[in-house]
Amino acid sequence: MKRLAAVILTASMGLALAGCSGNPYKEGVSQLESKEYKQAEASFKEAVKQDKNTADAYRGIGIACWEQKEYKAALKAFKNAVKAGTKENATLYNLMGGCALKLDDGKSALSYYEKGLAASGSSDELKKEMEYNVIVSYEKMQNWEKAKSKLNEYLEKYPDDETAKKEVEFLETR
């Protein structure tokens, strides 16, 4: 009887441990937290393959790729996350806009930032960042007049932003 109890206990512990280490989504989250981005990317890809938390796994792939400066792959992963049903929020759209800017696609970046600004629940700091990046998006598109107009609106809201003040000087040369 004691031997059977020991076997059951050992088997239960083995299953519990296998359950923890057998979830690639959870492993990916842990690896992201530990800044092990390459490993996290691989774990999240395995989670997608196993259909475990697919939408959030795609978002995890995007974050891992972003941290590795692989912006094309990050943007693709974020788009897949949206298609798979991840919660669309300002943070996600800010990351998507950032990827598009890094890929010199001002038009797409602008679209993502506008969606992010329209999303509810973002912090004032995130809104400020996206509002500034709207200006940068117009600059990428070489739409200098719209960039100047948005910069003036921005400076009315945030008159102490030194970076924006320097941006005025840049736009005056355009």
Could you give a quick summary of the protein structure above?
This protein is mostly helical and 174 residues long. Helix content is 79%, strand content 0%.
List key phrases describing it:
Serine Threonine Protein Phosphatase 5, Tetratricopeptide repeat; single chain; mainly alpha; 174 residues; 2 domains; elongated; 0% strand
Describe the fold and architecture.
With 174 residues, this protein is mainly alpha-helical. It has two domains: 65 residues, Tetratricopeptide repeat domain (Serine Threonine Protein Phosphatase 5, Tetratricopeptide repeat, Alpha Horseshoe), CATH 1.25.40; 87 residues, Tetratricopeptide repeat domain (Serine Threonine Protein Phosphatase 5, Tetratricopeptide repeat), CATH 1.25.40. Helix content is 79%, strand content 0%. The protein contains ten helices and no strands. α2 runs parallel beside α4, α4 runs antiparallel to α5 and α5 packs antiparallel against α6. The longest helix is centred in the first third of the chain and has 20 residues. The radius of gyration is 22 Å and the shape is elongated. The N terminus is likely disordered.
